[in-house]
Amino acid sequence: MLKFFIPVFLLGCLHKSADVVSTFDPSGSMCLDAFNMNIQNSQCSEVDKKILNNEIVSISCKKSYTETFWTNRTFYIVVGDYDIEAEGVIPICVDHNIMIMTGNVAP
């Protein structure tokens, strides 16, 4: 009886449908790839990018059809040195290449 229930429970973990992005080109950074996919899935149609202090990239969604965490905030991407400390800054993701953060103030 237990042999029957285990496969049935595992079937519940399978997704019935999955969105497949055919034009995905990995950047080499898991953080950046995940960030890009979240912005795309949030239906952001126009992104504003700025370089701050020659070392921090600021990214925000200028035009979106939805209001989500990914479309309502400004994100900051830092390459290399991660020892940035600023009040109100929330780290989102860190990998071997970059750190992505958001918050009320620029780092």
Q: Can you describe this structure?
A:
The chain is of the alpha+beta class. The protein has one domain (29-103). It is 21% helix and 34% strand. Strands 1-2-3-5-4 form a 5-stranded antiparallel sheet, covered by helices on one side.
Briefly say what this structure is.
With 107 residues, this protein is an alpha+beta fold. It contains two helices and five strands, in the order H-H-E-E-E-E-E.
Main attributes of the structure:
107 residues, alpha+beta, five-stranded antiparallel β-sheet
- Total helix count? 2
- The overall average pLDDT, rounded, is 78
By DSSP, the count of extended strands is: 5
Low-confidence stretches: 4-11
Task: Give the topology.
Layout lengths: L1 H10 L18 H12 L2 E9 L3 E9 L9 E6 L9 E6 L3 E6 L4
Antiparallel strand pairs: 1-2, 2-3, 3-5, 4-5
